[in-house]
Amino acid sequence: MRFNSLIPELSVSDFSKSLKFYTDLGFKIEYDRPEKKFALLSYQGSQVMINQHNGVWQTGKFDYPLGRGINFQIECRDVRSLIKTIEKQNYQLFQEVEENWYRQNNQELGCREFLIQDPDGYLLRFSQDLGKNDSR
Fold first, then answer.
1. Are 28 and 43 in contact (CB under 8 A)?
2. Where are the alpha helices (DSSP H) in the chain?
3. Using one digit for the tens of pLDDT, what is the confidence trace for 88-103?
4. How far apart are the C-alpha atoms of 47 and 36, rounded to whole Å?
5. Is 104 exposed, middle or buried (0-12, 13-18, 19+ CB in 10 A)?
6. What is the CATH architecture assignment of 9-54+70-134?
7. Of 20, 40, 72, 110, whose Cβ has the fewest other Cβ atoms within 10 Å?
8. What is the per-residue pLDDT across 29-85, written as a single tens digit (0 to 9) for each?
9. Residue ranges per structural domain of the chain
């Protein structure tokens, strides 16, 4: 396994509940340390670590929702297929599926995306590439 150069590590309040959520969405456990309530997970090239909250590296109150002010964009090959998986699990979306185009220099980059919160309130933004348009 190759490690990405940036891998967020999320402190979670209930490791088992979080691990179930992520694996229900299709994340793969690359490795774990069950005795430490830790796992490194991957999803179509993205990586994230989850760890039972233990107070180490805590910078403030550990209150829900966690991760205020950040969302993690996760590339996804097929948003509609993932939505079906989410619906089967009865998870609620934070933001419905939208098609968005973002300007990058003289091009627009298209994506189909939605947001969902994990059990601790971290925002996950799954994004499917729709290609590029010349915006001149």
1. yes
2. 15-25, 79-88
3. 999 999 999 999 999 9
4. 19
5. exposed
6. Roll (3.10)
7. 20
8. 999 999 999 999 999 999 999 999 998 888 889 999 999 999 999 999 999 999 999
9. 9-54+70-134
SS3 48: strand
Token representation of residue 12: 């979670």
Could you tell me the sign of the dihedral formed by the alpha carbons of 131, 28, 97, 70, in that order? negative
Q: Find out whether 111 and 128 touch, Cβ atoms under 8 Å.
A: yes
Q: Find the largest Cα–Cα distance for the chain.
A: 56
Q: What are phi and psi of 79, to 5 degrees?
A: -60, -45
Contacts of 28 (CB under 8 A, 6+ apart): 41, 42, 43
Closest CA to 71 of 4, 125, 10: 125
- Per 3-state DSSP, the chain is made up of helix, strand and coil in percentages (nearest 5) of 20, 45, 35
Q: Which residue has the tokens 């109150």?
A: 61
Position 57 scores a pLDDT of 85
CA-wise closest residue to 127 among 108, 109, 113, 117: 113
Cα–Cα nearest to 75, from 30, 124, 123: 124
